[in-house]
Predict the 3D structure of the following.
Amino acid sequence: MRARSLVAAALLAGCASTPPGTMPASRSTDPALDAAGEPLRHLLTSRPALRDAVARAAELRLQVVLGVIEPGSDGRPVLRQHTYRAGAEYFYPASAVKLFAAVAALERLHELADESGLPVDVDTPLAFSPLFPGETVRDADPTNLAGGTITVRHELRKLFLVSDNEAFNRLYELVGQDRLAASLARAGLGTARLVHRLSVVRTAEENRQMPRVELRVPPEDGGPLVLPERRTAPLPPPPPVPGLAVGTAYFAGDQKLAGPMDFAPKNRFSLVDLQRGLCAVVRPDVDCGGAAYSLTDADRALLHEAMSQFPRQSANPVYDPAAYPDSWSKLLLPGLEKRLPRDRFRIDNKFGQAYGFSTENAWVVDAATGRGFFLAATLYTNADGVLNDDAYDYASVATPFFTALGESLAEWFWPEGASAQPKNR
């Protein structure tokens, strides 16, 4: 009991000292690591896979943000973020941005209900009209066992459970690039940019085009509600960020082009803001560094369920656990459960992986006490330097890194488990 009370005190004090159960801090030869302070500096030097990544930090574009919740001066808890190389260079956030499309879609439904007076909600069937050549009306989803329609509820679940790209694109089109930007700005995340669909090649102008969307409210309730096809105005130029040229070559279709790929036109998000945005969803009681989202308790419950479930636990849609094991979308899970039983913790997260970048944005909470921590991390693993060749070093570098980080986080946050024998899984 004495050790646990000391850990709680250290957490409430912002983890200024290393909690019991961890190795003593030591100085390093990395100024950025020393500047990170404890406990992050210890966490990143506690295992070989982590030390190896730190030794190659610039090559791997390694960035880590650990967030802890502390008492605020006005009585409201606040998020304190410990950072290692945060913002040092660009990273491609990939599917980690889908969280913010989900939030914006829920906010948009509330706006539409208020503006129209119609009973629009997450279960309202949606129909998307053709916009580009080759498209047809999209109004059915056979994976939705509750009627076979496209709904925001079902798209959200697919988006988090298996990171479905089409689900993201549908929410992107429902909300629009401009309203996505406005949602981010309202939450104090205005430097982020969500400017394109995923897994389909569109020009910048095409990504500003939104199809006609019909919200099929029943006629007896005054429906349907139709959103006309529209083109959004270009967003203001983003602030500069280093490292937008990535790799030494890349494939465009079947053609290999020499030279780095330019990520200037692509989505971007700082790791600090990714974490702050997640904090605002899962801990609305905390000052996460920006304004609150316009979400109801029911919205948050829907997001929490989708973020925390494993694909095998989903009754709708249904997924094959052989294709989507528990660790498929939760990069810290293998390491955490080396030290802790599964029922001891819960993970609300959204990861992303593309172009050699692996990014995790997670809230890990003690299921018994409700205490938790935020962890956001990204690294780039592409030894051959070629993008779009599907020869990235996810399994050999990224997975061991996140597994080691999860195990070290478990030892730090639950020091009583530090003496347990590691479980081979």
